[in-house]
Design goal:
By secondary structure, the chain is α+β, with helices and mostly antiparallel strands. The protein contains 3 helices and 8 strands.
């Protein structure tokens, strides 16, 4: 028969209690938890877009999320575009996530379609979207 000393029993009890204590990851949706989740949108769900600074694009999807996109090569018609479409470089399903690259097809009135490559940079917070100038907010 094994005996456990009182100090050893207390240490084991404290260890088991701290293992059950809720950590910061287990406590509901926090910004830290949201930051680790994959931030994605469906290419078919684009609702609006606006050009930002040179080579920058802001897009809004049907779930009201806004993403920043950076073009990797020249999109000549982007400043006159009235429609854009995204196609993933990695998946035919049409789901695009932060860090992915995609092909953008740009259409303008009276012009030929233009295509360029782009990278999905990040999803903006509500505060960041509100801080965008009206001319850049989708």
């Amino acid at each position: 028969m094994r005996t456990v000393s009182i100090p050893m029993a207390m240490a084991l009890t404290l260890t088991s209690l701290t293992a059950c204590a809720p950590g910061s990851q287990a406590s509901g949706p926090t910004e830290a938890r949201a930051a680790t989740e994959r931030q994605c949108f469906w290419a078919s769900s684009l609702r609006n877009f606006r050009q930002g600074d040179y080579g920058q694009l802001y897009i809004r999807d049907r779930s009201n999320q806004v993403f920043e996109v950076t073009t990797l090569d020249r999109c000549q018609e982007l400043d006159r575009a009235n429609a854009i479409a995204f196609q993933s470089d990695f998946s035919s399903a049409g789901r695009l996530c932060v860090g992915d690259t995609a092909r953008i097809t740009v259409r303008s009135l009276g012009g030929d379609p233009d295509a360029c490559r782009a990278r999905i940079e990040r999803r903006l917070t509500a505060e960041e979207v509100a801080a965008l100038p009206d001319s850049k907010r989708p």
